[in-house]
Design goal:
It contains five helices and eight strands. With about 280 residues, the protein is of the alpha+beta class.
Length: about 280
């Protein structure tokens, strides 16, 4: 359950904004009482658009952007998260999920089938069901429950959802927002341009250039956020890197023609860039 209460925040330049401070509670836990010191780390659901483009970025480009020792001195450092690719049987750079824990759209989707819906597939033949849930008592959809054809359809769909066109690029407010976006250092993580591989699996994604379109943490963005895990900039209470709007000067102008959102990540406390 989520309730909200207003909380005023003052920037260093005395600019003030009001955030929606979420109050979380868990009613009727199914597996016993929760500890008093339980910590929660809520997230807005990640977007689905442009995942095929992100998957088509060459791994070498992601590794090159890691900058673990902050060699360029911009205050941003991180490393590429190495994960197990079940399809190839090798360790590769993670790209998807909240902490870049999945290497591909396919593996992310089939783990979601298993973990969120309890449905097996040939790639992920086991679910996260606990003995106390009595899953064996429920009807079984077959072995596997998600056929290879359905898995291929879902992977193709998730990979093919298009990125919306940038709008209002000549609008003065949009231009100011783009300038402020860069001035605040947001582009240090959200890199301005990326180029997909010439040998990407799907022809429409080969050799494509694209740039910043914010849609939450799993953004359709030419970005380093896939691999940034540590930074000298302020961190949120749960260890996540705070956003560019956390620093003084953000005034809510739309960066680079971005669509407005009712709430902004990570737990959706603000309704503008300044309240991000």
């Amino acid at each position: 359950m989520i309730d909200y209460r207003p909380r005023e925040v003052r920037f260093a330049d005395d600019h003030r904004v009001t955030l929606q401070e979420p109050i979380y509670s868990i009613a009727e836990p199914a597996y016993g009482e929760l500890p008093d010191a339980l910590q929660t780390s809520p997230r807005l659901a990640p977007p689905m658009i442009g995942l095929g483009l992100l998957e088509a970025i060459p791994e070498a480009d992601l590794i090159a952007a890691a900058d673990p020792d902050d060699a360029d001195g911009d205050g941003i450092s991180g490393r590429a998260n190495q994960v197990w690719d079940m399809r190839s049987g090798t360790t590769v750079v993670g790209r998807f999920g909240w902490k870049a824990g999945e290497p591909s759209v396919e593996q992310q989707g089939l783990h979601a089938f298993a973990g969120d819906m309890g449905l097996t597939s040939s790639l992920v033949p086991h679910t996260d069901c606990m003995a106390s849930q009595g899953c064996d008592d429920f009807p079984n959809g077959g072995t596997p429950e998600v056929s290879d054809d359905v898995a291929d359809f879902v992977t193709f769909y998730a990979s093919s959802l298009a990125v919306p066109m940038r709008r209002n690029m000549s609008d003065p407010g949009v231009k100011r927002g783009a300038e402020r976006f860069n001035a605040l250092g947001c582009a240090s993580c959200h890199t301005p341009r990326q180029h997909t591989a010439e040998d990407a699996p799907a022809r429409p994604w080969r050799g494509r250039k694209y740039g910043p379109i914010v849609t939450c943490c799993s953004t359709i963005w030419a970005r380093r956020w896939l691999i940034i895990v540590a930074s000298s900039r302020p961190m949120a209470a749960n260890g996540a890197l705070r956003r560019c709007g956390d620093w003084p000067g953000a005034n809510g102008e739309s960066p680079s023609g971005l669509s407005s959102r009712r709430s902004s990540p990570h737990p959706g406390r603000g309704d503008s860039l300044a309240r991000w």
